[in-house]
Amino acid sequence: MSEHGSDTSSMDARPVYFRPFTRDSLVAIRQRMAEEAIKKKELEAKKAEEQRYDEDDDDDGPHPEPNLEQGMPLPIRMAAAFEQEFANIPLEDFDPFYYHIPTFVIVTKKKDIFRFSATDAIYLMSPFSPVRRVAVAVLTHGLFSLVIITTILSNCMVMIMPSSPVTESTELVKQ
Region (Disordered): which ranges (predicted)? Predict the structure, then answer.
């Protein structure tokens, strides 16, 4: 066996976790949702036909993977396969729980996960709208959290300052 042959086969064997989120991705998700709704109706019809006396169903269904939650860093197995060209661009959701749910994911350069809904925002803006893309870019930028934390801390500092004639004169007193 040559070195090159084993390298290419190992590269081909690596799973593909990251695919860009496109309009075709959204159409595929909607098709899966429609198929799931049909299956659900068939299952409910089948359950209605058969009598169930034992209602001890403790299964709550599938759950999202805890290590792929919003705000968590990518797991090591996925971080190794993550290419920097996919940083800060919308990707198809790689958590199997969200397979039938219209969501997309953005992974930052620091490999943190941000999950967004792929439905129309305010019934007007699709996930591909320029306004929505800018809003998502601002939310996922590293400085956004810093600005929010700085604002909160400065507000706390102002609130604990002792009263002075200047601060007293700015208060509005209704009589």
Answer: 40-70
